[in-house]
Amino acid sequence: MKLARRYLISGLVQGVGFRYFILQRAGDYGIDGWTRNLPDGSVEVFAEGDREALEEFERDLRQGPGSASMSDLKKLIRDVPDFPKPGILFRDITPLLKEPSAFRLAVDRIVERYRGEEIDQILGIESRGFILGSAVAYQLGAGLVPVRKPGKLPAATLRMNYMLEYGQDALEMHADALKIGQRVLVVDDLLATGGTANATVALARQAEAKVVGCAFLVELEALRGREKLPDLPIFSLVTY
Fold first, then answer.
1. 165 given a catalytic annotation
2. Among this protein's residues, is 104 annotated catalytic?
3. Among 78, 115, 134, 227, which residue's beta carbon has the most beta carbons within 10 A?
4. Structural domain of residue 10, as residue ranges?
């Protein structure tokens, strides 16, 4: 169902390209409406669209020009063919990470989703999960637990094997990283086949922690990684 909202925006919003910014963002979200300058120097906006699109649009209005939108996140992810081996199309998030407004938006959206969930620890999966996980943990007031490949952690560890297309691999976590009953969130840059995320969830449950959910910057839907996490809510910012 479509909703309609009216906004009055004041401050330095005339003569700085603000109306163009509004029209651009409205197009990104499929929102109809109009905008006009008012005699008192403010800008009036009428917008019509679905609830989720209007909420994203309103967030962008609050941040103003120079902010990133959700559509910008996908544009900033670079396709690298034949990496790390022939036939693989690699989704490179480093261009997104180096854009301050885009990186901030990605972190903010994950934080908004889980604020109020009383998260005790973020489980960041090696290695780009460390980048996102650290920022999310800071904003949520949670700790960060690194989940690493075998042999990378110095103290006693818990270990979980998982299957690859050909063979198997493993992930480890310090045995004393989690306390019984702690509420944890798994964070990584990418959900593909779901093997690493599923192994990380298994590690948390082995430590008798409560897994609240899994959050990803990118999800490759065709690889059906969600099917390995059937009992958990999955939150992804960008899907392919």
1. yes
2. no
3. 134
4. 3-63
